[in-house]
Amino acid sequence: MTPVGRRTVIGAAGAAAAAAAAGPGAAAAAADAAPAGPPPPRGLRLPELWAHDPFIVAHRRHGHYFLYLRNRPEATGIPGTGTLLYRSRDLVTWQGPWSVFTVPDGAWAADGGWAPEVHHHAGKWYLFLTLHDEEQTLAEPPDVLIRTYRRGTSVAVADSPYGPFRLLDPGRPHTPDTFMSLDGTLFVEDGEPWLVYAHEWIQRLDGTMEAIRLRPDLSGTTGDPVHLFRASGAPWLETRLATDEAALPPYVTDGPQLFRSRTGELLMLWSTYLGPAGTQGYVQTQARSRSGTLAGPWDLLPVLVGDNAGHGMPFRTFDGTLMLVLHRPFGSPDSRAKLYELHDAGDRFTLGRRRKDLDGGD
Fold first, then answer.
1. Domains plus CATH for the chain?
2. SS (H, E, C) 277-311
3. In this predicted model, which residue has the larger pLDDT, 338 or 242?
4. Which of 37, 191, 205, 338 is the most buried (most CB within 10 A)?
């Protein structure tokens, strides 16, 4: 990708105030408008954009698809750990990046910025992303097999999908402070918001999916974490736990994404590794709650997409087609966003055709 240089994102406060005086509909439209300032490049294709853990919001009122990605300063020329936004009307050509979030000075961690995802909830836009600080040790050998350090999901808020987002709690992550966790996502069950996240295999050895209840304004959490399932429950894995670091990758949990199916089933997309010591690569898989609720119990289903691809999320196009966006391959700097049609079979997802016409891939 050609470096685009640093751009200053200028808020549209004056326009928003004027729109508010004109009525709530106009105010909402103004809040969703792109920031003032020099427009970023147009006509980009997905093969030009480094993409790891891609997340797409289909914004019907705006008429755009918003793609959120982690900033890589060495590729974009935009400094800092943060989140970028690209937009498209057709999923083919994209404009961007807009810088929507940068980790502020003094935050509990300044590295990572992994797996950014944006949700509209209770009239606000919320950014979930994973941060870490390798200098803040949690435990180290011989007390544990692998050294662990502070890693968790933080939540930021904005009035617009373009940001600027601000951390709700700069002093700590929303995930439990002593956990090494990542990839937090929002799920609302019976009107109550939950943070669903992956508890790292590095700390657990057998990675888990867990959830913790959020406050109504998402400013923090309440109660204790709830265990959902273990990575070793996947049908292609042996249940015997590994005894050395080299054999651990198959017990990874990554990228939870919740979806209510057409028959009311609760499904989850998630990712892990396949084969002995993860030698068959990263995979996109899925799970189903037997109770139809977050509490489960959860059945882990066969792999949906292999070929070193994963961390996918479902979204619908403006014509109602259910789609899957994920990244392939796993490693940087080659990782790119790939698009598939996705079918809701009620009790599971089934994979449709690869949309190379959209993602421009091989």
1. 55-90+97-311 (2.115.10.20)
2. HHCCCEEEEEEEECCCCCCCCEEEEEEEECCCCEE
3. 338
4. 338
